[in-house]
Amino acid sequence: MTLQEAIAGYMRYAGIKEMHVAAALIDCDGVLFDTMKNHTRAWVKLMQKNGIKCSRDEFYLYEGMTGTEIVKKKFKEGVGKVLTDDEARALYGVKGRYFLELGATGKVNGIDRVLDVLRQAGVPRIVVTGSQQPSVLDRIDVEFADLLSPERVTGNDVRHGKPNPEPYLKGVAKAGVPASQCIVVENAPLGVQAGHAAGCFTIAVTTGPISEKELYKAGADIVYPSMDALADALPELLNR
Ligand code: CA
């Protein structure tokens, strides 16, 4: 799939005559930060301590749901326990501590370049994440400063996490432009589903074990193998 083909396909199903990118909605884990390895390790530890069977890879597939949604899902399926919101929040807090114990994580390679190309083109860059984890959210401002716009949508702002379109629809509302003028940058199938369902041109980047094929299946308009590949392609998308 070339970018031109992806744009032509998107314009057809979105029912628009021309493509104009006015805002970018940027996922956090696996897009800004290379955190997924440690998140999946921390989830497995939490489940093992509570006698819930799981595989590490399954947590890549839940990526995008809010933290409390994941806790509730696994406890219900694993031990038939329906958790209250408070119980889910407390267990998510424990998972957050395990995550911190695993040590520092870096940025995803090439993400600074992607954000800088968007900034130079005057396109706002709004973070839209299912995360509710302070140790990750607090780092965004510190490590990205003016590469990102100050607006945020986090797991604390939504009733339904990804794949529900709510997080990206809130991002679109913050951008103040139509969804068809927003691009989404994602790395996970549920996040791609959410961006697509919100009506945005959804770009996926393979930054973990999820294959290109799975991301297209989830509804990605185009998939890139790295952030650098996306940064190289962006001018063609922005200068239309
Ligand atoms: Ca992600």
List keywords for this structure.
alpha/beta; single chain; 2 domains; 11 helices; 240 residues; Rossmann fold; 50% helix; globular; binds calcium ion; DNA polymerase, domain 1; 6 strands; six-stranded parallel β-sheet
The CATH class of the largest domain is identified as Alpha Beta
Order of helices and strands: HEHHHHHEHEHEHEHEH
Residues in helices, as a percent range:
40-55%
- Provide the CATH architecture of the largest domain: 3-Layer(aba) Sandwich
**What is the CATH topology of the largest domain?**
Rossmann fold
Query: How many angstroms separate the termini?
Result: 18 Å
Name the shape in a single word.
globular
Number of domains: 2
Strand content: 5-15%
Q: What is the CATH homology-level superfamily of the largest domain?
A: HAD superfamily/HAD-like
- Count every helix, treating DSSP H or I runs of 4 or more residues as helices: 11
Poorly predicted ranges:
none
Biggest β-sheet strands, sense, barrel: 6 strands, parallel
Radius of gyration: 17 Å
Strand order of the largest sheet: 3-2-1-4-5-6
The tally of strands reads 6
What is the structural class? alpha/beta
What would the average pLDDT be, to the nearest integer?
96
Query: What small molecules does this complex bind?
Result: calcium ion
